[in-house]
């Protein structure tokens, strides 16, 4: 079965950086799009970024363009989200998504 395990969340000050990882198993990782989403308290889960199977194409929501970078390592079955210049409004649980499956999420808190 598809399994997605996120890691790398934590508490960071505004302007800081974090790198999230999502390690996948149960499917042929290199054949599929992977995406990151996030959900803040009281809000709906929203799309953050998506990457093509080869890694050559990426898409971002407007609010993170220029600050976040999605990448993948198909040899390690892992997708990353490098987050820089973090803002308090980036605080959320971040989820990895593939093949109609979600990971358990990792909490990112941006606060001084």
Report on this model:
- A hairpin with a 2-residue loop joins strand 9 and strand 10.
- The chain has no helices and 11 strands.
- Strands 2, 4, 5, 6, 9, 10 and 11 form a 7-stranded mixed sheet that branches. It has a 4-stranded antiparallel sheet with strand order 1-3-8-7, with no helix packed on it.
- It is mainly beta and 112 residues long.
- 28% of the residues are buried.
- The protein has strands spanning 3-7, 10-12, 18-25, 34-39, 46-51, 58-60, 68-73, 78-83, 92-98, 101-102, 106-110.
Shape: globular
Number of DSSP strand runs: 11
Oligomer: single chain
Report the biggest beta sheet as strand number plus sense, adding barrel if it closes: 7 strands, mixed
Element order: H for helix, E for strand = EEEEEEEEEEE
Separation, N- and C-terminal Cα atoms:
40 Å
Rg over alpha carbons: 13 Å
Whole-number mean pLDDT: 97
Percent range for β-strand residues: over 45%
| Count, helices | 0
* Low-confidence residue ranges: none
**How much helicity do the residues have?**
under 10%
């Amino acid at each position: 079965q598809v399994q997605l395990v996120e890691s790398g969340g934590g508490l960071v000050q505004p302007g800081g950086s974090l790198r999230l990882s999502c390690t996948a198993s149960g499917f042929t990782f290199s054949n599929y799009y992977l995406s990151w989403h996030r959900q803040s308290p009281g809000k709906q889960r929203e799309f953050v970024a998506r990457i093509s199977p080869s890694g050559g194409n990426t898409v971002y929501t407007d609010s993170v363009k220029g600050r976040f970078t999605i990448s993948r390592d198909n040899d390690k079955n892992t997708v990353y989200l490098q987050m820089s210049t973090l803002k308090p409004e980036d605080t959320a649980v971040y989820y990895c998504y593939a093949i109609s499956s979600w990971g358990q999420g990792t909490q990112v808190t941006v606060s001084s």
